Amino acid sequence: MACRVVLSAEERETISRELRASRSFRFIGGVLGRHHSVVAREVARNGGRLAYRATRAGKRAKVLRARPKSRKVERSGRLRDYVMAGLNARWLPQQIATRIRVEFPTEPEMRVSHETIYRTLFVQGKGELRAMMYKALRSGRAKRVSPSAKRPRHDLIVGMVNISERPKEAEDRAVPGFWEGDLILGSACKSQILTLVERQTRFVMLIRVPHDRSADRVALLLANKMKTLPEFLRKSITWDQGSEMADHAVFTMATGMPVYFCDPHSPWQRGTNENTNRLLRQYFPKGTDLSVHSQAYLDEVARELNGRPRQTLDWYKPVEKLNELLAKHGGAMTP
């Protein structure tokens, strides 16, 4: 942000005198050794050529310099409450700034840029406000950390169907019902949460996996969850080659959903789920015990994620996009 140039009383007197002589801004700037735009802005701020007076301009500048500059987010109670609610929900400033235009399209006072939110937080944020800023950070860390856990053996899964066999309609996200899944692991890889995300709507579901991630347990929990969905949302699941999906045939028999497996060391083939897991690390940091979280808490986290406006959805929320689909089939999901 550019700083306003401070003019002396003598310079203002010169400007006033030269204006009376009908001098141009460029000429006056040359006399002062200032850029002509400095003179033009000074005159425009103080009534224009005919009304400019050096003494009055000096008094106005002194008042402006002394006045505390509260930011828009702090001045407006409704706007501040909306921003704080968004930060509490772990929305990014860009999500807040864009979504507020959708919800208050005819209220100019409910407008704020994401830069203003960031400036308010960084410059004046203390205590609770500063804590909100850290909650809004995606990763909570400055650099990537390589996973310490050993990769599962890939020769344990029989009858794998490669992702190259997945229907082409899944690629462009034009058809709903294609899911991506994975596990996020806790400390020492001794606890886990099953994560699912629908490719078109980015709708997230989380499943508590107690005790261990054995293939039979994962197949049963995953099948029970998927059977709660309408049939049009049960087309397939894409997974990596983790041994927890060794009973994929059992899952497919129970749900009618085929499982497609990514190539080894190819996380981008499940990019939607990988991105979702990074968001989930805000709630479930690496190195913590995930077994302490109840299914009720996992459902609450999923509701919070599904209630965030997403840039990839033109700033709609995943739950809103899913409800558009369900409305055609006589149902709706809660945020």
UniProtKB/TrEMBL annotation:
SUPFAM superfamilies: Ribonuclease H-like. Keywords: DNA recombination. This is Transposase, IS30 family. The keyword tRNA-binding does not apply. Residues 163-326 form the Integrase catalytic domain.
